[in-house]
Write a structure and sequence with these properties.
Layout: E1 2-6, E2 9-14, E3 17-20, H1 28-35, E4 41-45, E5 48-53, E6 60-65, E7 70-74, E8 80-84, E9 89-94, E10 97-100, E11 110-113, E12 117-122, E13 126-130, E14 134-140, E15 143-150, E16 156-157, E17 163-172, E18 178-182
Antiparallel strand pairs: 1-2, 2-3, 4-5, 5-6, 6-7, 7-11, 8-9, 9-10, 11-17, 12-17, 13-16, 13-18, 14-15, 14-17
Length: 188
């Protein structure tokens, strides 16, 4: 398998086929505008694609997991990345320092957006997110219907309405272990 940044999104080549992996996450026009694909440099580590775009003044990073289809924006830019196969570590060059990924005590900010869940119109009225704190955004039929800062893992109500396309976005620094969406609070 190979994964690379194209002008339309991230493409996976496997079994002689090319597939646009980010098609349900971000449209090609937004991809080009936000992530500047000509500038992307990346490493593949622990089953995830770590991409960095732009430059130190006007850039950022993201993690894409081909297995789950998740796309997480990072609050940092790295000038370069290196995967060391001997110690199974990912190293980032940030300015004039080298940092090992997932080895420090401080947590980095993230912005994670799910794939688009599409099907028959569904009525999701409740959600629960297993994390200490985060900001939750909910999209129904491509319209943002909720932005909610949350400081506990208790369930909460979603604005009423049916939708055939649902997408969820979380931002914060705390570890998220689950996102649960249901048609009633009792199902949570």
């Amino acid at each position: 398998m190979a994964l690379y940044a194209s002008p339309d999104g991230l493409v996976r080549i496997a079994g002689g086929r090319a597939e646009l992996m980010t098609r349900n996450i971000i449209n090609p026009e937004d991809w080009r505008q936000r992530f500047k694909p000509k500038t992307i440099h990346a490493c593949f580590h622990d089953g995830r694609y770590f991409g960095f775009y732009g430059d130190a003044l006007d850039g950022g990073g993201f993690i894409f997991s081909p297995d789950s289809g998740t796309f997480t924006e990072l609050g940092t830019y790295a000038d370069a990345c290196y995967r060391d196969l001997q110690d199974d570590s990912l190293y980032l060059a940030i300015g004039d320092t080298i940092k090992a990924w997932d080895k420090g005590a401080a947590l980095m900010p993230y912005r994670w957006r799910s794939k688009v869940f599409q099907g028959k119109p569904a009525l999701f009225s409740s959600a629960r997110i297993m994390a200490d704190s985060y900001t939750d955004l909910v999209f129904r039929d491509e319209q943002q219907i909720l932005e909610l800062p949350v400081t506990s893992d208790r369930g909460f109500r979603l604005p009423a309405g049916r939708g055939s396309r649902w997408q969820f976005e979380l931002a914060g620094t705390d570890t998220v272990t689950a996102l649960i969406v249901a048609s009633s609070m009792a199902e949570l």
